[in-house]
């Protein structure tokens, strides 16, 4: 087996003096404000984490990567790293243009010298890279609903890395880690990739993996973008720091990786291997369902449980990092210790204990006991701090339905009932009220409706984050926009979608505001249900129809739902 080459890896940064000069000259360039994902990608491009890439992929490289996981020059590269921009921005850009790439505060990070501009076939990218053009896959959803329509490619001139104010001492570039390993004389290093808090079983399996490979261990969690709904990285890092003390001294280190994951299973595992090689690691632990995105829209897994391991093994020599098999560790009560599940000879004579991720979340949600054999007390304390029982968390009730369906009336009744119960502040973001105070300049085109709903989602997510109850009652006619709002809110608390499914005929017959009549006469354009679409939610948490039912009863149905979800106590 070859020993690691811990020589410095090429970075894309220019010298300090050149950077100062470029910063001034860049004042005349067209600027692109990078998205959070693009900032993560750019950081790893510039610091060598994505070596051998020298910038955002050209069209030729993109096609080769999508079709067979290699760059045009034959080097292994499984993930399209592209700069997606809007059609409007792309209009003025031609090959030969230099663009200033800026962070969200306008600070220049790099210059992209555009060599290629093209409109990608996103359905093909989804099918080849993520395995299916299915919006249930978070990266496919991102590709179709968040990423811009046009890709720009070309080499990068790095000016400065994105600034991080949190956990500065725990963030290392590939070259900083390489230097650290050199200094400590570490020659074999096993990387452990993770996006979840670590418990005793993880500590046991990582330590064993390192021991078996006679190597040191790098806990290398992702703190860029992970799967929507994951525990936030601030909490996770505090947990990792607590677990670090459990390893024998100087065998193990912790470093944070600002990667934007795609949850692409097998391709993602290969990508993670290349990134770890670039950070000086010789081995990487690849587990069952590595970087799995969850279920597809038919309720099945996107990838087989061992697909990632198989693809990694196939390309291991090209990756330059050896795979270490992940052993499932379980707790054997009689022996009071963790053992690899497949090495327990007396399985039927002992009691095997395990708590799944779903069960752990349930216990946190409901404030139930989490035993010491499962996790470390410091980790449980941290998790309880950020995930109090659901009855103490903020949440959002999001009504959606046609104009005149009864959303506002039920929402008002619900608000009063919740205020009567007390405990948490309640805010009602009603469609009409929002349009008056937050969105008065907007009309009813798809673009304007989306902006309106995202504003509501943003305010609701802030209320939820701060422990309040947000009740929203817009029409919100588009599935993709409602999903985006769901993702914003679920990072902080529950999102309860209530479809007020009163039929168009009934809404039109009521015509409380006289708008349907005007819409039929063509006096109001783009009217939902008449001359504009309404995409009914397929799987809302609750569906109510107000036809022949009084408001009180509908609001009560919502209350019962909130109780059954543990969000309020009877
Ligand atoms: S959206 O699509 O969610 O942004 O719409 P929303 O902000 O909820 O709409 C609020 C109210 O605007 C009135 N209105 C229209 N609705 C639909 N289409 C058109 N073209 C339109 N023009 C005005 C309508 O009364 C909505 O209120 P509700 O409470 O739903 O009846």
Please render the helix and strand layout as text.
Layout: H1 16-25, E1 30-33, H2 36-46, E2 55-56, H3 59-68, E3 83-85, H4 87-91, E4 98-102, E5 108-113, E6 116-118, H5 122-130, H6 138-145, E7 150-158, H7 174-184, E8 189-194, H8 200-212, E9 216-221, H9 233-244, E10 252-254, H10 265-278, E11 283-286, H11 307-319, E12 322-325, E13 329-332, E14 337-340, E15 352-353, H12 357-365, H13 377-386, E16 395-400, H14 407-421, E17 426-430, H15 431-437, H16 446-465, E18 469-473, H17 479-490, E19 494-500, H18 504-510, H19 515-520, E20 542-544, H20 551-564
Parallel strand pairs: 1-4, 8-9, 8-11, 9-10, 11-12, 16-18, 16-19, 17-18, 19-20
Antiparallel strand pairs: 2-7, 3-7, 4-5, 5-7, 6-7, 13-14, 13-15
Helix pairs in contact: 5-6, 9-13, 10-11, 14-20, 16-17
Structural description of this entry:
With 570 residues, the chain is of the alpha/beta class. It folds into 3 domains: 4-158, Sulfate adenylyltransferase, CATH 3.10.400; 168-330, HUPs (Rossmann fold, 3-Layer(aba) Sandwich), CATH 3.40.50; 390-565, Rossmann fold. Helix content is 38%, strand content 16%. The chain is built from 20 helices and 20 strands. It has helices at 16-25, 36-46, 59-68, 87-91, 122-130, 138-145, 174-184, 200-212, 233-244, 265-278, 307-319, 357-365, 377-386, 407-421, 431-437, 446-465, 479-490, 504-510, 515-520, 551-564, and strands at 30-33, 55-56, 83-85, 98-102, 108-113, 116-118, 150-158, 189-194, 216-221, 252-254, 283-286, 322-325, 329-332, 337-340, 352-353, 395-400, 426-430, 469-473, 494-500, 542-544. The strands form 4 sheets. Strands 1, 2, 3, 4, 5, 6 and 7 form a 7-stranded mixed beta sheet that branches. The protein has a 5-stranded parallel beta sheet with strand order 10-9-8-11-12, with helices on both faces. Helix 5 (122-130) packs antiparallel against helix 6 (138-145), helix 9 (233-244) packs antiparallel against helix 13 (377-386) and helix 16 packs parallel to helix 17. The mean pLDDT is 95. Bound molecules: 3'-phosphate-adenosine-5'-phosphate sulfate. GO terms for molecular function: adenylylsulfate kinase activity; ATP binding; sulfate adenylyltransferase (ATP) activity. Catalyzes the synthesis of activated sulfate. It comes from Paenirhodobacter huangdaonensis. Keywords: ATP-binding, Kinase, Nucleotide-binding, Nucleotidyltransferase, Phosphoprotein, Transferase.
């Amino acid at each position: 087996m070859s020993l690691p080459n811990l020589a410095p890896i090429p970075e894309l940064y220019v010298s300090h003096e050149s950077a100062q000069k470029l910063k001034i000259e860049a004042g005349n360039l067209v600027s692109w404000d990078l998205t959070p994902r693009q900032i993560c990608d750019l950081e790893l491009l510039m610091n060598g984490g994505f070596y051998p890439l020298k910038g955002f992929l050209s069209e030729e490289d993109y096609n080769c990567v999508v079709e067979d996981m290699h760059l045009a020059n034959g080097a292994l590269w499984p993930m399209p790293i592209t700069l997606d921009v809007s059609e409007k921005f792309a209009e003025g850009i031609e090959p030969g243009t230099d663009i200033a790439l800026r962070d969200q505060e306008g600070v220049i990070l790099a210059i992209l010298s555009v060599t290629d501009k093209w409109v990608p076939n996103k359905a093909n990218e989804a099918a080849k890279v993520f395995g299916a053009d299915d919006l249930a896959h978070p990266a496919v959803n991102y590709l179709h609903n968040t990423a811009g329509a046009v890709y720009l490619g070309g080499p990068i001139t790095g000016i400065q890395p994105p600034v991080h104010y949190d956990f500065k001492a725990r963030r290392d570039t590939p070259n900083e880690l390489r230097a650290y390993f050199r200094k400590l004389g570490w020659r074999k290093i096993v990387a452990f990739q993770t996006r979840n808090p670590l418990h005793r079983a993880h500590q046991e399996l990582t330590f064993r993996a390192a021991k078996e490979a006679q190597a040191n261990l790098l806990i290398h969690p992702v703190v860029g973008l992970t799967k929507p709904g994951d525990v936030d990285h601030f909490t996770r890092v505090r947990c990792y720091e607590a677990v670090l003390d459990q390893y024998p001294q100087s065998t193990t280190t912790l470093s944070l990786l600002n990667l934007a994951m795609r949850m692409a299973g097998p391709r993602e595992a290969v990508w993670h291997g290349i990134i770890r090689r670039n950070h000086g690691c010789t081995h990487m632990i690849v587990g069952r369902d590595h970087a799995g995105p969850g279920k597809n829209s038919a309720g099945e897994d996107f990838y087989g449980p061992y697909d990632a391991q198989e693809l990694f093994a196939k390309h291991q020599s090209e990756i330059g990092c050896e795979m270490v098999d992940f052993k499932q560790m379980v707790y054997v009560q009689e022996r009071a210790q963790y053992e690899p599940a497949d090495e327990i000879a007396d399985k039927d004579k002992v009691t095997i204990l395990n708590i799944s991720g779903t069960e752990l979340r349930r216990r946190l949600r409901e404030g139930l006991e989490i035993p010491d054999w499962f996790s470390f007390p410091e980790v449980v304390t941290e998790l309880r701090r950020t995930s109090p029982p659901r009855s103490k968390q903020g949440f959002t009730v999001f009504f959606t339905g046609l104009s005149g369906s009864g959303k506002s009336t039920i929402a008002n009744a619900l608000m009063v009932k919740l205020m009567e119960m007390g405990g948490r502040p309640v805010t009602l973001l009603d469609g009409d009220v929002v349009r008056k105070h937050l969105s008065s300049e907007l009309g009813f085109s798809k673009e304007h409706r989306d902006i309106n709903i995202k504003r509501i989602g943003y305010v609701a997510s802030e209320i939820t984050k701060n422990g309040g109850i947000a009740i929203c009652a817009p029409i919100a006619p588009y599935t993709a926009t409602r999903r985006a709002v769901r993702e914003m809110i679920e990072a902080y608390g529950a999102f309860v979608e209530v479809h007020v499914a009163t039929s168009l005929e009934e809404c039109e017959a009521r015509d409380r505001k006289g708008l349907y009549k005007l819409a039929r006469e063509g006096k109001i354009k783009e009217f939902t249900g008449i001359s504009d679409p309404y995409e009914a939610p397929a799987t809302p948490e609750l569906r109510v129809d107000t036809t022949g039912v009084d408001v009180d009863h509908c609001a009560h149905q919502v209350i019962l739902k909130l109780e059954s979800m543990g969000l309020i106590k009877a």
